Amino acid sequence: MILIETGERSERAFDAKLLFASQLAARGHRAVIDDRTLPPKLERYQKYEAAPRLVDLSAVQPSRVILIGAEAVAGETLLALRSGGIGARTPVHMIGRFADRQGAIGAQAKVAYALGSEPLVVDLAQLQGAALAPNAISPLAAAPVARLQPGRTPQLFVVLPVEALEDPQTLPTLAAIDNLPGYRLNVILPGKGKEQVKATRYAGLNVFGYTELSPAGFAALADIAAFCGDNVPGERMAAFALDMMRSGRVAIDCTTGSGFIAGGAPAVRGPADLAALANYVQHTVLVNRAEIGRQAQKSPWLARHSVEPLERALGLVPAEPAASGTVAPRTLFLPTNGVGLGHARRCSLIAEAMPEAARPAFAAFPSCVPLVREKGFDCLPLVQKSADHPEEFANDLLTYLRLSRVLRAGDRLVFDGGYVFDSIHRAILEKGLDATWIRRGLWQAGQTLGAALDRQRAFARVIVPGEAFEELNSDRGGAKVYPVGPVVDRLAPLDAEARERAQAALARRLGRDFDALVVTMLGGGVAADRTAQTQAMAALAEARSGALNLVVTWPGAVVAPGLAGWRNTLVVQTRNALSLCLIADLVVSAAGYNSFHELVYHGVPTIFVPQMAVYMDDQERRARAASDRGLAVTVLAHEILLLEREVRAMLDGGRSGTIRAALAAADLPAPGNAEAARLILGEGRP
Amino acid sequence: MHDRPRIAYVLDPRFPGGTSAAVAAELRAVASVCRPSVHLVTSRMFAGQTVAPALAQAFSDLALDPIWDAPQIAAETVILHNPAFLKFDAALGRRIVARDLIVVTHENFERPGGAEGFDVASCLDRIDRGALALTKSLAPVSPLNRATVEGWARRHGMPGGWSLMPEDWFNICDFALKPPTTEPRDRRGRHSRPGFEKFPSVEVLGQCFPARAETNVILGAEILTNDAAPSHWQLFPFRGLDLERYFEMIDFMVYFTAPTWQESFGRVLAEGIAAGKLVISDPATARGFAGGVVPARPDEVDGIVDFYIAHPNRYAAQVARAQEGLALFSPDAFVRRFAALVGISAGVPA
User: Fold this and answer.
1) Which residues contact B263 (CB under 8 A, 6 or more apart)?
2) Which residues have C-beta within 8 Å of that of residue A680, sequence separation ≥ 6?
3) Shared-domain flag, residues A407 and A511
4) Residue A321: its pLDDT value, please?
5) CATH annotation of B187-327
6) Is B195 on the interface with A (CB under 8 A)?
7) Given CB atoms, is A78 within the 8 Å cutoff of chain B?
8) Do B76 and B9 touch, CB atoms closer than 8 A?
9) What does the pLDDT look like over A158-214, one tens digit per residue?
10) Using the beta-carbon criterion (under 8 Å), do B116 and A106 form an inter-chain contact?
């Protein structure tokens, strides 16, 4: 365990510490940070970077200490070193860029006095030469990042100072670049730059904040990076450029001061004028991309500024990468919890279609954990978002920590949900995961995918489980988007005789006879209150002497107390609603993805009462697609009288029989469970 | 007067603590045999600081008229005190012309373990480039200081033209001697500037100043405020307590430093001896006082204190012997040695 300290105690120094600790961690060294050194104010993304590294020094003993920025050691740092519980035998390395020999001697002496033992000094001025970023605190050593997928569309990252937004031509120029074929544009802006852009009509631009990803995370995404502004734009961007060059990618120095090239870095000189960048990238860089990268990698300057000489100076041996094939990759499903348990159910169906060798397991929020475990999968519990947390993303920080601990490079991560959390995005990029995003294909009119899809590029593939009816498949598609058939649970079909036997068995178990079995499952009330509709169904059942109305909810769901008063209505809390639906004469259901497809594919006569909310898929369109084909009935939530008529028509008018017959004859697409599983395992379509 | 050798002192008068006091005492002592010219240097090391009070007082008392930053200094003998003051400067910044240039090495050239104390080679080089002298000598202030100069020379090589003086240029200890108590009690204390180098670890301090002691007084204790200091320590900031009052509060002075640093002379220990206290320190520091300081490891301190409390006569004898030893560092002893060195008669008034 290597404790990283800085000479100064400041926000800038803390960021440098984070940067260096992350870089060491990426090399397999367990770099940690004393939690007492956290500055009072941290940016959101810095918290993600810091969280896995923080330790309580009263509980752990570092095996060594690395003090960066040692050319200026503040008294506060010396006091912390003196009283920080660092053992006298713990080796302490000081890394600094010392102005002269006296600077190194003096700094060493100061630390030696505070520690009571002699530190070892690494002088970056001798090891690397001049610093790429003036006054850098972090050692800024280039490290290679994972190889990019061959054949993908090149990703151009443009790093801009926030002042660039003051130029009215900046955003139109970027928008023009964004529409050029041949490469995709990404913009990196410091401070509030991202928010500023998102508040304009250029919100469609893909913008990152400076600290949104680690430099290595940016380098993992980028093929080409152009750095604009007056000079090298700070330590993070210098580290990003170094990792780019070390990884054989292109760093373009567009700074007016030629900061990178003047410092000796093997960057290519680009235009300082943003308007000229598009042509420069198109006609100079893209055609020579591989050669530029190769030449950069051969640079003696880059060799001096690489992480290996620094590791040697510190006596650090990088962790050996796990030999390929020694440990089979695991497949971790992470379904968001959303409104109900739909994501978890869908993931579990795909996981069930996988061979055991894929080692499917889950990370899930508390409401989903029993479902997942009941299906026989290991499950890492996650923490639910709560208004009681100090920050809205506090639970996601924990998710990030847990994912970081359980996942290794090469593992598969399958995320099912609409919004890619920071935790997931970071884990994919930092761990080099083979990531799959399962996302819905049915969107409401006017819903934009833009913000949700910003992070799509971190995924190796996107699987869009299809809808039963073609016109509902409205995903915009893309190079790595794979539509599959509906992911749906399939139980053995029951004929009329089998249904009767099952109903009789249920009657015996409940100790009551019935001649009509109705299942009502209108949702848990998170997206929309369905108390009135559920009560209406109870009232309808009460009016029929031989009816039994089962109100089915998830275990633990809140049940309206008024339901207890009905004689012909029982509340059933189960995760196996489909089994009850299969033997029902009528189901009254919301039209969520899983329920809808299970009911349609199993030929169950259903009245769909869609739930609608701005963040949900379009349940009404889904329900109407079935009812327009005579395969179900759609009743909107406010149509209570219509609901009553339709229930009578189903139970008394023979409509349920008609629908059952129509469903039996319907030509539905083949389920996509197995295909989705194959795609996740890399065995599907190319 | 013209046939008397001219003596010039060169120093940055702003260095604090024992070094200033030692040079002030030296100027007072040599005033009996010569009237040196005093050249003051504005080095970058002490930027923003003022002249040390002890030196200012000496200049005033001796009616010396120091010259600031003269471009040229010429004398038969030039004595430059503490070459470390040049460690942040690019050059000496003046011309020294002398028959003999003596550089008094107050600051240890090496720290315990062999790490360089400062960039010695560069400082000597700056002096070398700025001085025209027939002889250039390094004058250590103590046996320990000498050992660090010799150790440095072994590791890095003595620069050409420099030699090491055979005798130490010791600090003058001209303190009023007070008799020891006849009934020593377990009342311990230490005083120093508050730098990190002056203090051992909290664990070692805990051994030196335990709860069982009747009194534990630590003067110059600024850095201990972060260490969750135990309540049985009485902590005072530097100059937060009058020295006379401080010495009244203790019978034993227990002085250990960071293991990565060593006093070059240990004037603070001499102060303790003169004040009639039994002084305990690490063996290396104690060695400079020829038996006047009781050498010990921190874990031996309790036993030593117990012994002397049980044997008051031995306590008194030890303090008396230590005070006799201070005579070795008396002004007279210094002047005799100085006069012989610069070629003047010790008996002739200036």
Assistant:
1) B144, B257, B269, B285
2) A331, A350, A354, A358, A412, A414, A436, A461, A463
3) no
4) 64
5) 3.40.50.2000
6) yes
7) yes
8) no
9) 999 999 999 999 999 999 999 888 888 999 999 889 989 988 999 888 899 888 888
10) no
